[in-house]
Amino acid sequence: MRTAAGIACVVGLAATGEAQVGPRAVLDTFTAGYAALDPEPFALDLRERLAAVPADSVLARQERFFAEQERQLSAVPAMKATDEERLLLDLARFETAHQLERIALERRWIASGRPMPVNGAGTLPESAAWYQLLVRRFTGYDRSPQELIAFGEAEVARCHRAIERLHAQLGGAPGPAWITDKAEVLRRFAALDRVVRGRLPAFVGDADVPAIHPMEWPGAGPHTPPGIYLSKEDNPYGADVFQFNFHGGRFDARALDWIYLHEAIPGHHLQSGLRRKHPTHDLRGLLLYPGNFEGWACYVEYAGKELGAYADPVQELGKWEWDLVRSVRVVLDAGIHGLGWSSEQALEYWEKHIPGQPDLADREVTRVTHWPAQALSYKVGADAIQRLRDRLAKALGQRFDAARFHRALLELGMVPLPLIEEHITTRLTKGT
Q: Rounded to an integer, what distance in angstroms lies between the CA atom of residue 148 and that of residue 337?
């Protein structure tokens, strides 16, 4: 129970400067204090996030804790730490720097009268600082709006090239491919599950992945996303499930393969299953980094063919059509929140690249406007993982093993991708 007395006790202990110089002692104090404070409840919606900002006195107490932790962490001798402790110390430092920046910004926001944004982060005081904070929280990286737009536009062009290639292969753009029999959707998901599980050891090593159950998303409507993963700890069904949108009694067959890869195996369900099998009773259990888990789930979609998916070019087309949506969203996110684009400007950019789908346009522009930086986590995360893989493959040459790389990445746990970049080489080169 997070009582005020308990928080004061933890913060007070840290503030005394007692002999807590060993890595484990510093980490234990940090983890206990972070858990007691619960400093930044996770929220996707910006207005919801701001509404939850506590009183200035609470923020001041948080600031004292993290300032003391910054001092403690800077004094830890790295030579005394194990590889795992070094990872956790770097995680604590990453989080401390973020929290101190977040607290200072929120305290200034309170002092300015708690103004609520009208059309995204771009309408807040100190909008550039807010967007920078949110980009780092959702991706792990510092990226300017201009850098994000350049990246997004390069990815948009890449998707258009892939779509044009597949149109040529198929003899033109195919029409809608709806499945109206829900039993057929479930059958095809089950068939794909068997194929992917058979290929999984070559992709990520031996992994005893629990069963995953596809099901219709209850109450899905025209604005409901294509799919969502819910572990058994986070749903009332008592089983790991991923839900698909069957609104109107139909499912887009072109989305079948990429949704399974993303939500099930080797995407969210595999990553969740490994965390469950190898729980981390440390700071990683308290934190959530979308660039890590959404980046991984987006990254694995590109490996569909080696996993036995996309046997039908129409399925591969569906993957690239949705990747185009994600790529356009990167540009929209940076435009709206970083450059102050209006909804009209955002819709104009959308229509230029994904014409003739007004309902989808309205849904996605609304989502990006309300959830600043969240849409970045997929593409920025996937790109970071791919670039890391390419660098290591070049550096290690014949010693590089893709399955070992994937497994090491997942086993590092819920940490920001920049820390994975720093620590994965040690994992891969041990014993080689």
A: 11
User: Which whole-number Å values give the CA distances from 407 to 200, 202, 402, 428, in the listed order?
Assistant: 11, 11, 9, 10
User: Can you read off the two tokens belonging to residue 359?
Assistant: 């309902």
Token reading at 371: 């959830």
User: Residue 179: in which H helix or E strand, if any?
Assistant: strand 178-179
Looking at residue 397, the DSSP 8-state letter turns out to be G
Q: If DSSP states are collapsed to H, E and C, what string results for 251-297?
A: EEHHHHHHHHHHHCCCCHHHHHHHHHHCCCCCHHHHCCCHHHHHHHH
Report how far residue 73's alpha carbon sits from residue 43's, in angstroms, rounded to the nearest whole number.
Answer: 28
pLDDT at 10: 45
Q: What is the DSSP string of 210-254?
A: PP-EEEE-TT--TTS-SEEEE-GGGSTTSS-EEEE--GGG-EEGG
pLDDT at 328: 98
pLDDT (tens digit per residue) in 8-67: 444 444 444 445 468 999 999 999 999 999 999 999 999 999 999 999 999 999 999 999
Residues paired with 216 in a beta bridge: 244
Write the pLDDT tens digit of every residue in 308-346: 999 999 999 999 999 999 999 999 999 999 999 999 999
pTM: 0.93
Which residues sit opposite 227 in a β-bridge? Answer: 244
Pairwise CA distance, residues 223 & 247, whole Å:
10
Nearest-angstrom CA–CA distance, 297 and 255: 15
Contact residues for 326 (Cβ-Cβ < 8 A; gap 6+): 155, 298, 375, 378, 379
Q: What is the per-residue pLDDT across 386-429, written as a single tens digit (0 to 9) for each?
A: 999 999 999 999 999 999 999 999 999 999 999 999 999 988 88
